[in-house]
From TrEMBL:
Keywords: Transcription, Transcription regulation
Domain HTH araC/xylS-type span(s) in chain numbering: 245-343
Molecular functions (GO terms): DNA-binding transcription factor activity; sequence-specific DNA binding
InterPro entries hit by this protein: Class_I_gatase-like, DJ-1/PfpI, Homeodomain-like_sf, HTH_AraC, INH-QAR
Name of the protein this chain belongs to: GlxA family transcriptional regulator
SUPFAM superfamilies assigned: Class I glutamine amidotransferase-like, Homeodomain-like
Length: 347
């Protein structure tokens, strides 16, 4: 992340136990951007109650004048309160702004933007899910910050808000140990909001509760915020480069073998320089960087299962020496392989 502005002064922490999570609802919001994070907080409460503890989170859906919110899927939600009536919020609150097609209209809502600006310094946390980052950006709250959003809105956000450092290769920017990014943060598209919510649960209630919540929700593991938004293994085929599509299908089965540019070019029946041009045009990256991402993803899956040592994973995934694996993990995930296994493993 780039250098960060000084953290604003905060009012004192409330002495009351628990935490209020307010999600802003509006017509055209994506239903999963709202329901996904709120379900995480509800499930975390359930995990606490199973251990004889009181629920920690209270959740509210706050809308504009009309309390009935029609989401982009057609699902209608009844809000608990109007956001204009939430003044002031207790400090121990989190405000989340979801994304969806309705963002294009609601980001021009002057009253909502002013409410967000007034509320931001008075609450513990404020963040966005998916394209909800465009609402925060339109309010000026993200200027000078690093932010992310759904990959399909990244270019738009960069063009409209040049004062924001937009990182398209992150799931979220929340960092509990940072005074700025622990307070104001963004997340990528749709399910990344669930990863963000789990990170908030871990910050509030500890890793054990976050992992128990993830297991209850039948999630494979809680992904770190620095992970790429989408898997290179899911890169769509292109009708303009059928040889490249075939090569992308072939690579995952060969990660322990030689995947040099020369070997890839031979497999694709293309000159190395032509292959490099096709990769850049179709995928926006180099063959070597693409292969590294595939290998990191495969290594992440193996380490998450905690069934092989770091040295074995490095060998199986084509890194050779564990030090090469360590460098790639730090480059892509900002964490060591050992720390990844301990922090995000399923065992």
């Amino acid at each position: 992340m780039p250098s960060k502005p000084n953290a604003p002064q905060r009012v004192p922490q409330s002495i009351h136990e628990g935490h209020l999570v307010v999600c802003i609802g509006f017509d055209g919001a994506m239903s999963l951007d709202i329901a996904g994070p709120l379900q995480v907080f509800s499930t975390a409460n359930e995990m606490r109650m199973r251990q004889g503890m009181r629920p920690w989170y209270r959740t509210q859906l706050a809308a504009g004048n009309d309390l009935v919110v029609t989401t982009s899927s057609g699902l209608r939600m009844l809000a608990d309160v109007r956001w204009s009536e939430l003044a002031p919020l207790p400090y121990n609150s989190t405000v989340l702004v979801p994304g969806g097609d309705g963002v294009d209209q609601v980001r021009h809502d002057t009253a909502l933007r002013e409410w967000l600006v007034r509320t931001e310094p008075r609450v513990a946390r404020m963040g966005s899910v998916c394209s909800g980052a465009l609402v925060l950006a339109g309010s000026g709250l993200l200027d000078g910050h690093c932010a992310t959003t759904h990959w399909c809105r990244v270019d738009e956000m960069r063009q409209r808000h040049p004062d924001i450092s937009v990182d398209s290769d992150r799931l979220h920017t929340f960092d509990a140990d940072d005074p700025v990014y622990g307070h104001l943060f963004t997340s990528a598209g749709v399910t990344a909001g669930i990863d963000l919510a789990l990170a908030l649960v871990e910050a509030d209630l500890g890793r054990a509760t976050a992992l128990a919540t993830a297991r209850q929700l039948v999630m494979f593991m809680r992904r770190p915020g620095g992970q790429a938004q989408f898997s290179p293994l899911l890169t769509p085929e292109t009708t303009h480069a059928p040889r490249l599509a075939q090569l992308l299908d072939w690579i995952p089965g060969q990660i322990g073998s030689d995947l040099s540019v020369e070997r890839l070019a031979e497999q694709a029946c293309l000159p190395p320089r032509t292959l490099a041009r096709v990769f850049h045009k179709e995928l926006g990256t180099t063959p070597a960087k693409y292969v590294e991402r595939v290998r990191v993803e495969a290594a992440s899956a193996l380490l998450g299962q905690r069934q092989a040592s770091v040295a074995t994973v490095a060998r199986l995934c084509g890194f050779g020496h564990p030090e090469n694996l360590r460098r790639s993990f730090h480059r892509h995930l900002a964490v060591s392989p050992q720390a990844f296994a301990e922090r995000f493993g399923s065992g």
